[in-house]
Amino acid sequence: MKFTHLLLFSVIFLSVIACKQRTEAEKIVDSAIEAHGGDTYTEVKIEFDFRNIHYTIFKTPSSFEYIREFTDSTGVVRDVLNNSGFIRTVNGTKIDTLTEERIGAFSRSVNSVAYFAFLPYGLNDPAAVKTHLGETELNGKAYDLIKVTFVPEGGGEHFEDEFLYWFGKEDHLMDFMAYSYHTDGGGVRMREVSGVMEVGGIRFQNYLNLKPEDKNTPVENMQDLYISGKLEKLSEINLENIRVEALPKN
User: Fold this and answer.
1) Residue 4 falls inside a structural domain
2) CA 66 – CA 80 distance, rounded (Å)
3) H or E element at residue 85
4) What is the pLDDT at residue 228?
5) d(Cα 49, Cα 169) in Å, to the nearest integer?
6) pLDDT of 88-130, one tens digit each?
7) With CB atoms counted within 10 Å of each terminal CB, which end of the chain scores lower, N or C?
8) What is the CATH number for 129?
9) Does 246 score more than 90 pLDDT?
10) What is the mean pLDDT of the chain?
């Protein structure tokens, strides 16, 4: 009996220690993921249309597969990005003549749409470094401001990109985000939630895509520019025809 009590105490003690090891930034992100969908993200297939392209996203804790399908002058194009790499087919025929540069560009494009559609899920990736920048206020609402950067190992080809996320202090929802990027000449953007759809237990969000006049603006300056009305609407990020299907658990 004493051994059982000791074992139980040890398990509880280790659990408490593990919880205490979570940083404030990690706890805020944990709450945000829970508010947006929680465990529903972990074994799911999602389909949606974005800018006349159909996307199918499979995600499990150990694997992923992102598919996009569209029609252009060459025919029916199907791009598949998964743990094994990238494949493009046109009218069912695999294209073997793609250069490494094109494969990289297509892979980044597919991955980017999947990444943004699933936010804030993914921010607990081991390569993501999260920092709590403190509390702030936008449009009369209190937020925790989180900065996310990525380590070179596992952080992807463009680990130098920086992201800011505004999570509501009370509801833990991500209403704004901003990021700097280095592809295609680089730049900085801010996104403001413009619409919300809850499908299959997951919160999906549409955004207004905003940009500053100077593409070299530090991402930390985007909130002040937003407040002062100095960001220009560049586009709208709208997901349509969303479907969510739970996958069988292994």
Assistant:
1) no
2) 6
3) strand 85-90
4) 97
5) 31
6) 999 999 999 999 999 999 999 999 999 899 899 989 888 899 9
7) N
8) 2.50.20
9) no
10) 89
Environment class of residue 99 by beta-carbon count within 10 Å: exposed (0-12), middle (13-18) or buried (19+)?
Answer: exposed
- From CA 50, how far away is CA 68, in angstroms rounded? 10
pTM of the model: 0.85
The length of the chain in residues reads: 250
Name every residue whose Cβ is closer than 8 Å to that of residue 221 and which is 6 or more positions away in sequence. Answer: 212
DSSP secondary-structure letter at 200? T
100 lies in some domain? yes
At 188-206, the pLDDT tens digits run: 999 999 999 999 999 999 9
Query: Among 214, 222, 194, 189, which Cα is nearest to 206's?
Result: 194
What tokens does 96 get? 């073997």
| Amino acid at position 24, single letter | E
Full domain range(s) for residue 241:
28-246
Q: What is the C-alpha to C-alpha distance for residues 114 and 119, in angstroms, rounded to an integer?
A: 9
Read off the amino acid at residue 52. N
DSSP code at position 36: H
Asked whether residue 137 is domain-assigned, the answer is yes
Q: What is the pLDDT of residues 7-41, one digit of tens each?
A: 444 444 444 444 458 899 999 999 999 999 998 98
